[in-house]
Amino acid sequence: MHKNLTESQALITEIRGIVRDEFRKSQAEIVVCPTALALASAAKLVEGTDVQIGAQNIHEAIEGAFTGEWSAQMLSSISVTHAIIGHSERRQYFNETSKQCSLKIKSAVSEGITSLYCVGETLEERESEKHFEVIEDQLNKGLEGITADEMSNVVIAYEPVWAIGTGKTASSDQAQEVHAFIRAQVEKKYGKAISDTIRILYGGSVKPGNAGELFSQADIDGGLIGGASLKARDFFEIIQAAV
Fold first, then answer.
1. N or C: which terminal CB in the chain sees fewer CB atoms within 10 Å?
2. Where are the domains of the chain?
3. Residues with catalytic roles
């Protein structure tokens, strides 16, 4: 929940300009997820560019008496292509469950919106060595009912809750260990072809200074960037580290 409409538009315009002038097309995808206030105008601002727009949340229903929410159909109607689902803050502050996330993913993929599904453990869960158990449960419940075909529209993001907004970062070895575990769980559920191609992002205080080392790990395919994305140049340096 950062930046008003004018500030969001200015940031997206700056990112768009840097990407236009300095980004060389590759396998990297660039997605910016502004507040709901800025989604429609952001989608207009990036038309015809290498930047895509994602929402920070989505509701599982197509429509109905859900004041303050927005559906996959609403988002697709304004050219939003991605949606973050199950972010740790949604789980912590709004009691969002993995089961609810599975319904949101199902709704998103039905509209061709790519889900950025977040999983991760708290500091207490990490210190008690329950992190693999927690993440396995989040994957099993969050992907329940999601078919192999639908997985082509799912990206998984590992965000250790203890490293979000704290300045702490999981070491590259810690991050790689969990990413490899996530990929193995996907293979167990959907087979090797899907586990080899699914993108698994790392989110947890990623900065220009540590992005290169994190993204060089075998099973880390990119980043879910928080605070560093509020500065266009920092965000772009992270993008370059993923290329």
1. N
2. 5-242
3. 87, 159
